[in-house]
Amino acid sequence: MDNLLKKGERIEDLGLENLKIIQNPEYFCFGMDAVLLSWFVSKRTKGSIHIIDLGTGTGIIPLLLYGKTQAQSITGLEIQEPLVEMARRSVALNRLSAQIKIIHGDITKPGEEIIPNFYDVVVSNPPYMRAQAGLKNKQETKTISRHEILCNIEDILIFSKRMLKDRGRLFLVHRPERLGDIISLMRTYKIEVKHLQFVYPSIKKEANLVLIEGRKSGRPGLKADAPLIVYNEEGQYTQEIYDIYGMTKPE
């Protein structure tokens, strides 16, 4: 196991089906948004399906989705080569090379390995900030992960329209302030928003994340799920968050 690690890297236990992931603080490590997105997807997808994760980073979403679904195949597409290499080592660590494939590529030019009209599900935890917005991180990999420099929402929707099967589904996590633009663009590319779920840090704060499900060539009809609250009034995770993480709430 140790020979899979490079300087500065560590192995984290995901607390799910004995799955583990290699992480490096020098790069963009996964957070709660990836965990919540995987949970949101797994509630609505089961069986022998094909999933592709756009901007997979170190492969956290493919690993979580493998543990939560019975997907026939899961593909992670990532443009940053160091993250591709790290994700592939995590897949090998878990002996899942037959089930999970990590591809080095650009969603605007994905290459022949990505098959049009093939995928049942497209998933993405994309950069939240517009390219010109906010302070850029000095480390290029973190800047690319946070800002729409190499990929924006429209790129994701163009990809999804082309690669999803008819009636296939797109799942996103994003910031609520971007929701109006996202819904408008989804309809432009014939992907109808079907479910939303807002995530609140606490009951007294505004939502800071929104989970989105869209369906290619879907009929109009939007449902909003009950809000997801992260922390209770005592500053501890709510029971639902403990359940999502598969943890036992302390007494």
Automatic annotation (TrEMBL):
Residues 35-174 form the Methyltransferase small domain. The keyword Methyltransferase applies. InterPro entries: DNA_methylase_N6_adenine_CS (IPR002052), SAM-dependent_MTases_sf (IPR029063), Small_mtfrase_dom (IPR007848), tRNA_Adenine-N(6)_MTase (IPR050210). GO terms for molecular function: N-methyltransferase activity; nucleic acid binding; S-adenosylmethionine-dependent methyltransferase activity. Coiled coil: none annotated. The keyword Signal does not apply. It comes from the Bacteria. Transmembrane segments: none annotated. Keywords: Methyltransferase, Transferase. One of its GO terms (biological process) is methylation. PANTHER family: TRNA1(VAL) (ADENINE(37)-N6)-METHYLTRANSFERASE (PTHR47739:SF1). This is Methyltransferase.
